[in-house]
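Margin note from the TA: students keep mixing up input and output lines. Inputs are the sequences; the output is the structure of the whole complex. Example:
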Amino acid sequence: MKPYPGAKLVVRMARYGCTNRPFYQIVVTWNRYPRDRKIKEQLGFYDRLPNLTGEQVLGLNLDRIRHHFKHGTEFTRPVLQLLGIVGYFPIHPYTLVEAKRITRRREELEQKLKEKYLEEKEEETDKIVQDESDQSGEEVKSESVDIDHSPSTDNQTKTVKSDVTNLEEALSESITIAKKASVLKI
Amino acid sequence: MSCNLSKAAFLQTFRKLSCVHSQLLLLRGVHVSQFKPPVVPTDIDPFPLFMEEGVQTILNDITGIDLKKTALLQPKKLPLKPVLRAVPDKELKRLQADSFKKERSKIEQRPPFMRARKEISCELARNPEIAPVMTNNLLFIDTSAFTRSERANKDKVVVVRDTEGTLRTATQEERDRAIQIAFPVRGRTIFPSSFFKPENLHNALQRCRYSYVLDKVCVQYDPDHPEFLRITKEIYDYILERREFDALRGTRHFGSMAFYLSLCHREYELVLDMLERKLIVDVMDYIRLHRKIHSQEGSKGSLSKPLGYDKKNFEKLMGLYMKRITGNRKKQAEKMVESLLEAGLPEIIKENLSQRELIDSYLKLETNVY
């Protein structure tokens, strides 16, 4: 018995919970009904935020899901994704797309941080060079410019080499900090 | 005195203690070094033994039914007005029979003595390509058990998708948590409360709240949970040290405690306690149980023969039992037996049997409720 002409059954997530605290019920409704109201049947729940032990909890009534799937109800993409992650369905292609996207964002972040780090290092070395040149310039003005610069250039190359070895160690910290600070799943 | 109790608390506990031995220990302050905690043997599988009919009937008979004690042990939230009724004799008998049956059904729900459960976790699938999406583990539980007939926790499917993308069956702790989230048991918390920490447990035990603590443990954990085994072992050892067996007599934990003690070859203190309280029929049953548990695949293992409770069989059993005891204990036991024989064994046996028959008659009465 259809509540309105052209009604289709749909399995989707209904958002309950409070502000900044989402909690989804996985639910069978008619497709034109409001998101949270007039539910035909509840099939499960999904808590997106991690609990005390750092887990996201998902519960599904697989018997009923199977029944609805047999009778041709539409499943929305997030529900299908969850079912794929759980292993009841094959993994949804959108999860792979998401995964690729996230890895790309991560790499871009790392690149940015690397560049920033190198820039900072260059600035520091430039500053050191400037200070030294100022000092040496004040002391010995008569001597040629090349001789004054040589020890500082040697130091620069040495510092660059050591920087490269220490780069990854120093970067990993900043990367983890940036990851934690980011709102997106990076 | 080396105990931590205040004066009033000390007096309270002193009054509650049922045994001279424990009172002495309380006065002296307990010497922990003298007591050797019992060790559970690993070669015998206790669960199938425990669930045999003969064993269960013996444990039922040993615990008996004590309505006053259970009425005292009930937690009272509000002071209840006493209900007074005038009732004919038949009705009275029926009401008593109801309460006896209720008690017996509660006692039969005794926690079985099992071995600790094994960790099961196997990999179902490996998908490292999903790993970036999984910021946390995803704990999945199949709630279709609501719509199915089977209810056992072992059959419920709990599965975890790791942050590395591997799909695996959950560990026992994760399973417990997930099952408690989806199929909650009343009184159980998902994360164990600080009640079960050693210091707080010790506090409760010092005030002789043995069955209260044991009931809480039974609610919180399943009988094959390693924490359950650890805590019950602690409590039983505490009781054994002080010989406070009477505190549990009449509750559903007495049977499991008796089974545990006879498994660990520490049944001697219980036997002594029973002899002191002149429960000779119980002694005979308990020694039969002990021999059954430690029988080595032979004729001694059978409990099917109904034992005639008389002087001859008692002496026979005690003789067989005392072959295993040596030294001081033997002398003590022999003294006890002699004193009982002087006091008049057959009358005591008659009394015990009449008590049992009373209980049986109440249980067999036909009532509407039970």
